[in-house]
């Protein structure tokens, strides 16, 4: 097997000295969509924030294409090709749709017109509302904007934290369809933290299960197809 795009070993970290991650190990190959699932409060969001460099690791390694990211800041990791869509979307509400997208191009030092065209083709509602303030969009539209802002920066790896949260089901289905289409067309790798069973099964090729700050199981495609198995790992 080729070297993983993302390799995490013994990762520990948390908030203000309080440990949350208790030695996370995982590997993601280039071109995969991999879900991380588990009950609320087991460390999934903390994992993504630590991978992005928004939280410091206290131990362990995060490697991208074999290179140890060490203590690189989030903006340095972004320039290496990691895009992060946080839980709750976190768009700039007073800026227009287009201004929000322009923030994304700074990640990799600029964007071409075709990068914007590609985002608008994926999310036509953003083209229609490109002059509208982001804070006046619906939750689903803001989620599309948050994903589009990352895509303008042409990432190789997208960390996507609970994209279905607070969004109507038809928009969730659309986001899932777009994620799969984008992955197949461009080869972008996605690590997805999610609780929505249908979205997990529609997008992910395999799945890691987290509990108490550790990876406790890995679900292969056949197990992922079993709703009861996945639901058991999501149960509160």
Can you walk me through this structure?
By secondary structure, this protein is of the alpha/beta class. The protein has a domain at 1-81 and 192-236: Rossmann fold (3-Layer(aba) Sandwich), CATH 3.40.50. It has helices at 44-52, 74-79, 97-105, 113-122, 124-128, 139-152, 169-186, 197-203, 221-224, 227-234, and strands spanning 6-15, 18-28, 33-37, 57-64, 67-68, 82-85, 157-161, 189-193, 206-211, 214-219. The strands form two sheets. It has a six-stranded mixed beta sheet, with helices on both faces. A four-stranded antiparallel beta sheet has the order 2-1-4-5, with helices on one face. Helix 7 links the parallel strand 7 (157-161) and strand 8. Helix 3 (97-105) runs parallel beside helix 6 (139-152) and helix 7 (169-186) runs parallel beside helix 8. The radius of gyration is 17 Å and the shape is globular. It starts with 5 loop residues before the first strand and ends with a helix. The mean pLDDT is 91.
Question: What would you say about this model in short?
Answer:
With 236 residues, this protein is an alpha/beta fold.
């Amino acid at each position: 097997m080729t070297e993983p795009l993302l390799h995490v070993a013994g990762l520990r970290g948390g908030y203000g000295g309080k440990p949350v991650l208790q030695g996370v190990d995982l590997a993601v190959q280039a071109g995969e969509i991999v879900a991380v699932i588990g009950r609320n409060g087991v460390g999934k969001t903390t994992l993504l924030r630590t991978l992005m460099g928004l939280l410091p690791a206290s131990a362990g390694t995060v490697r991208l294409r074999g290179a140890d990211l060490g203590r690189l800041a989030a903006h340095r990791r972004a320039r290496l090709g990691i895009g992060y869509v946080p839980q709750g979307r976190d768009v700039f509400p007073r800026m227009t749709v287009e201004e929000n997208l322009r923030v994304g191009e700074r990640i990799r030092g600029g964007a071409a017109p075709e990068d914007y065209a590609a985002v608008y083709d994926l999310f036509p509602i953003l083209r229609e509302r490109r002059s509208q303030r982001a804070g006046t969009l619906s939750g689903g539209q803001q989620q599309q904007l948050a994903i589009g802002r990352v895509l303008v920066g042409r990432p190789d790896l997208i960390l996507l934290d609970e994209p279905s949260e607070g969004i109507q089901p038809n928009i969730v289905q659309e986001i899932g369809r777009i994620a799969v289409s984008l992955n197949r067309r461009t080869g972008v790798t996605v690590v997805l933290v999610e609780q929505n069973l249908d979205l997990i099964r529609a997008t992910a090729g395999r799945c890691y299960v987290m509990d108490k700050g550790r990876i406790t199981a890995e679900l292969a495609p056949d197990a992922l197809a079993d709703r009861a198995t996945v639901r058991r790992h999501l149960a509160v």
